[in-house]
Amino acid sequence: MSEHQLLEPEPAPAPEGPPPVITCRGLTKRYGSLFAVRDLDLDVPRGATFGLIGPNGAGKTTTMSVLASLLKPTAGEVQVAGADPARDPGAVRRRVGYMPDVLGVYDATTVEEYLQFFAGAYRLPRKTWPALFDGLLELVDLTAKRDAQVNSLSRGMKQRLSLARALVHDPEVLILDEPASGLDPRARIDLRTLLLTLREMGKTVLISSHILPELQEVCTDVAIIEAGRLLASGPPRTILERLGRGRRVLVRLAGGEERTFTVADDVEQARLLRELLAEGLEIIEFRQDGGDLEDLFLSITKGVVQ
Ligand SMILES: Nc1ncnc2c1ncn2[C@@H]1O[C@H](COP(=O)(O)OP(=O)(O)OP(=O)(O)O)[C@@H](O)[C@H]1O
Ligand SMILES: [Mg+2]
């Protein structure tokens, strides 16, 4: 994979401040001759909203399943909220909420009964349940559906219920496998708002997606993986800077003329606007052109980074 050499992952940062909540060193999961995940290093800082980005088959679900203690790795060291998922799955499951990418089968269960089942499984005291469910249903905007059959919910509502279920034991870490898949644009915006709320609550969130512009807005850090390998990781801006790609700004002038500029950051973008105004141009539109992260993702995963 020589085309990826430009994007050798940066060495793990020197330890400073509190230790990361999730770390992987050399995480490898092999199925026969196929490496679903290969020598993956990850550091997810406490409180981060961390996007795991990659195309189909990149290894996102495999990585998340290992972190959630549902799958044993072939090799590597993993720590999640202070415990090793392979050696101490109980500790990890108490501290982690996992939202799988597939919706389960619910049979004849109401929304409330569904939450009761998981609250029971986590042995939460019964007297705390009513207030807990009130809060969770409000958070995911399903209060009106408390007595509805789970089977009668739309896909988006099931996704939200699944998230409520992942939160039932108030975990410090959330692992959300493609929570935006199958959601309509409105529901995606709601999900973004919810992710920001979770960040304000102090949760560390690992979220996977191929839907990139959304993650760019909501994620503090991203890791881009393909074929089980880490291609780049860090804050979205830092990755862009490392690639030296800058950001494109599209300017449309009265009369229809369009000009495109490349700037490095907010400061340069503000300066550009000042300069254009000082020239006396009649600016109709001034905006960033396209989803930076999507461009970045396509160029990295196709190996065509200039
Ligand atoms: N149980 C399994 N047995 C054999 N191969 C598997 C198994 N699970 C996953 N794989 C393979 O491992 C690779 C990574 O799969 P994974 O599901 O982790 O990808 P993903 O990034 O989640 O993809 P998607 O975006 O499609 O959900 C794929 O090549 C897949 O076929
Ligand atoms: Mg997957």
Structural notes for this entry:
With 306 residues, the chain is an alpha/beta fold. The protein folds into two domains: 2-234, P-loop containing nucleotide triphosphate hydrolases (Rossmann fold); 242-301, no CATH class. Helices cover 34% and strands 25% of the residues. It is built from ten helices and twelve strands. The strands form three sheets. The chain has a six-stranded mixed β-sheet, sandwiched between helices. Strands 2-1-4 form a three-stranded antiparallel β-sheet, covered by helices on one side. Strands 11-10-12 form a three-stranded antiparallel β-sheet, covered by helices on one side. The radius of gyration is 22 Å and the shape is globular. 37% of the residues are buried. The model is unreliable at 1-6 (pLDDT under 50). Magnesium ion (MG) binds next to helix 1.
Overview features:
single chain, 306 residues, alpha/beta, Rossmann fold, 2 domains, 6-stranded mixed beta sheet, 3-stranded antiparallel beta sheet, disordered N terminus, binds adenosine-5'-triphosphate, binds magnesium ion
Question: Looking across the biggest beta sheet, what order are the strands in?
Answer: 5-6-7-3-8-9
Total domain units: 2
Fraction of residues in H or I helices: 25-40%
| Weakly predicted, low-confidence segments | 1-6
Topology, number of strands: 12
Instruction: Find the CATH topology of the largest domain.
Output: Rossmann fold
Judged by helices, strands and strand pairing, the structural class is: alpha/beta
Alpha-carbon distance between the termini? 16 Å
Q: What is the succession of H and E elements?
A: EEEHEHEHHHEHEHEEHEEHEH
Counting H and I runs of at least 4 residues, what is the number of helices?
10
The value of Rg in angstroms is: 22 Å
Which ligands appear in the coordinates? adenosine-5'-triphosphate, magnesium ion
**Roughly what is the average pLDDT, rounded to an integer?**
86
